[in-house]
Amino acid sequence: MKKHDQRLHAYLDGELSARERTAFEDQMARDPDLQEELSELQALSKRFGAVPPPETIPAEPVWQHVQRELRVSTGAPPRPVWKWAWAPAAAAAMLWAMMWIQPFSSSSLPPSVIVEQVEVQADAAVPLVYTDQESGWTVVWLSTPTTQEEHAPL
Amino acid sequence: MQHETEWVQRAQAGDQEAFGELVRLHHDRIYGLLMRLTRNPDMAQELEQQTWIKAWRNLPRFRGDSSFSTWVYTIATRNAQDHHRRLKRRGEVEYLEGVDQLPSGSATAQPDRALMHRETGGRILEALDRLGEKHRTVMVLRELEGLSYEEIARVLKCRVGTVMSRLHHARKQIRLQLEGAEA
To answer: What's the pTM?
Structure first.
């Protein structure tokens, strides 16, 4: 796109500063081709005025639909997902560290505790038990499902 | 405007009624924009509903760098662009269906002039329909919605120079199409 084309469109759309506008008008006064080009663009722009406005619909049904959707999800705008994104990564890192970092030599020690049953008070919490035979470490991990709203993609 | 700022703040704090006021305030413009971009009343309504749901979910991210209406325009425009891309992938781009659905206007007062006016509007819409999605969007935002270059650049997340370049190309294409149709 040529420089004068850019300015021609910007002039047509009222996007030039007062100084640029004056300079462009001076240039145009000396250039009949530019004048013709401008008048064709102005005619085109005017034709857009013939495009009928779109028919409208009432706002209320739209809002009611949106409101129903919002009630299904949550009462308040959700917090950004990234606030919770670290949690699974942190849990995995902790588990990995507990498996691989052995603070004392325990390869010969048998597990001192055998977890047979985990009783959980919290609703919907799922206990996960991991026993490392070599180190004797037992990790009990309580997994509580987070709410859909907190993790809903934006 | 003062009300709008208050409603935005209240909505960000979780007040759905305040958000409802924002929906009512901007509904006509957002629906109108989506009608112009999709030319399909049902799709425009569906996309508008999606726009408001996304706006609610993203409200914590709105910091007032642009006006609320420009921000919602951005979401609506992207919704329409995504919709267009989905249609294109499925080979279902069908904007031209809406051309003969123009309102009858004031045909009784000056039938010839009104008819010419309708025909002109119809030709412009047809020409717009034949543009690619990017050029069509920029023309709708500029010529029909009256947004400035800066606002269009914000909505489309591109540079002002890109807006100017697309406008230039789109106008050239439309002029060629109209010349061809009227020759």
So the answer is: 0.67
